[in-house]
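Handout, tutorial session.
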Amino acid sequence: MLNIGIVGCGYWGPNLIRNFRALSDCTMKIVCDQNAERLQYIQSLYPDVNITNDFNVLLKDPTLDAIGIATPVRMHHEMGMASIEAGKHTFIEKPMAQSAAQCRQLILAAKAKNVKLMVGHTFTYSTPVRKIKEIYQSGELGEIQYISCRRLNLGLFQKDINVTWDLAPHDISIIIKVLDDSPISVNCQGKAHIDPLIEDVTNMTLNFNNGGFAIIQSSWLDPNKVREITFVGTKKMLVYDDVEPNEKIKIYDKRVEKPPHYDTFAEFQYSYHYGDMHAPYLKQVEPLRAECSHFIECIRMDMESETSGTDGLKVVEILEAASRSLKDGGKAVLIRDLD
């Protein structure tokens, strides 16, 4: 039986605590936070879970096998390194760290200590995303022409990262997972309306080597919660709406077709194909439960995680490129030219 500790029980930490506690092959042993009120709240929910405001208690506990880090992003690297150096398997919420350099340090440290390092890209464990990948790989959509992502809501405003770093990791990790490919460059523009130093609305474009591209719109200033990704293929189109309670995936038999040949411009006519729409059945599974279970499985079976430190690095490299583009008026930034 593996013993788990969680540091950070603000917004997301309690979800990790709930899911790890529900697993049969691990024990949710201890929770750490600086906020005494939050600690008391957690203990009122789970009286059998120990609490502390001292992170060193987790690091020095020889019975603790793994630590989950759900603190503000500015603390991910320092706490992650401390956890790894203490010989603990380490789970870090997204984004993995504040820079690609920090991510690489975490990866190297985990390798040297022979511990598992996993990043919380929760949506890649969701049934809809796994189904979309299956549909895409089957060839049903054809070649992806472009992807459009909208992740919008009113808040929650962050103090140490902008809206791109807060919301876009979800969409970036989904795109990489589905396409099994990473972009080569990024364009990003945005505005800061509430805090002059932190952009709360951004629009990012990911450019791929094959000519494809994806648009990611992120906002903390929208009246409605939107979680939508559209995949436009040469054969069919797919819409993933995570806010939709039942039919989260809808596949549209729609496309634009060019004439195979024509002799004059007058003969050139686009044809529009309109077919049926269908929504595939999806088994309802909480993505975070699947993610936590996978972390435990990776430790027990000595497996590489589906969202390892390397995957976390890829996302942070893209975010860094987006930040540089944002400061440079939206110019394209090559991802591999950051170091």
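The second record follows below. Compare its token runs with those of the first.
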Amino acid sequence: MDKILKNSDRIKLVYISSNGRSGSTLLEMLIGKHSKCFTLGEFQVLPIDYLHNTQPCGCKKRVENCDFWTDIINQNKNLIVNGTISKFRNYGNGKVIRWNELKELFLNFSASDYDLIKKYGKENFLVLQTVFNKVKKNKDVYYLIDASKDPYRLKWLAQSGYFDLYVLHIIKKPQAFVFSMIKNEKNFLLKWYLTLRMSIRWIIENIIIMKVVDKYIPQKKYIKIKYEDLASDHKGKLKSIFDFLKINDSFESDQGFKHFNHAISGNKMRFKMNSISLDEKWKLEMGKFFIFICVLITKLFKKIYN
């Protein structure tokens, strides 16, 4: 696809991609404390939260009552209400399997509608440009942080040519991810089925993310992060991330990650926790049988993710 904007005119967007419940909210909140960064949360959910009041803004107000987002929405009402920003997200999660996108990624089929990709990129760009201009009035922001996670959104943003993308791919141990998805299920057979399904999902989603990166993102603009490393040594991991982004490390010395923000959607932990610790409840509570199933299914793929 032809480049639409010069590099200097593109918005510098740090995109956090991952499975759900893999630490993306923690990561974006930590990075968002840096003076050069402004976190958007899961930006693609903005139209849904505005129209249907599904989750509050990071400031704890409903999006329609948040002064920050009200200003942005008023300037871009048609794009947010009738546009394509939430294309890859519904009321729940995005789809794991989108056949047209996968055929293009893995079989080089020209399956995507490039006019729609350009439209998608432009609509996201126009709204995010309004955000960027607003935050620049009070803060010397260099990057916007989008924790939307979805690899198909990443693919379309990259193909559109409107963004200078830096990708943070956060990966949680498959046992920990699967446990987070099955821990409330009491029925043994359904829990077994969900363990199988979520283990396969862990594999598929991470492979798709890596394929999108391999095809559309320069390697120098991609970094892989283990959730366990981030939670165990967040200061050390943040230093490597800030080095990757080429910004000085100005992370505050306290142990918390909460700060005033206007992040859209994300894990509700952002309202409840102020300390960072490695959660490994799966080791005690998941059960050896379900751990065995998960490890067996994902074993062949572990080397890919180091």
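Points raised in discussion: The longest strand covers residues 163-171.
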